[in-house]
Hints:
The chain has 78 residues and is an all-alpha fold. It is 81% helix and 0% strand. The chain is elongated, with a radius of gyration of 18 Å.
Amino acid sequence: MSQDQANLEKDRRILETLRKTLAQVIKEITPANTTVGIPLEPSTLDDVHMCFDLISTREREITLAIKQRDKEAKQQGE
């Protein structure tokens, strides 16, 4: 595995951990009684949504980059 490939894999694991942790925090602070409401400011909720969007966008980019490298490696091996 090349250094670039290793870095992409490392970045993917970091992003996955960030996404899971952020989701768990949101689950834990969300009250069971939905009439109470989420104890976050609307701007904070917007920021959380933006974080999830950024994480998922980067995860897709990394996945595509890994697939492209795998495809190129297979073509070179033919």
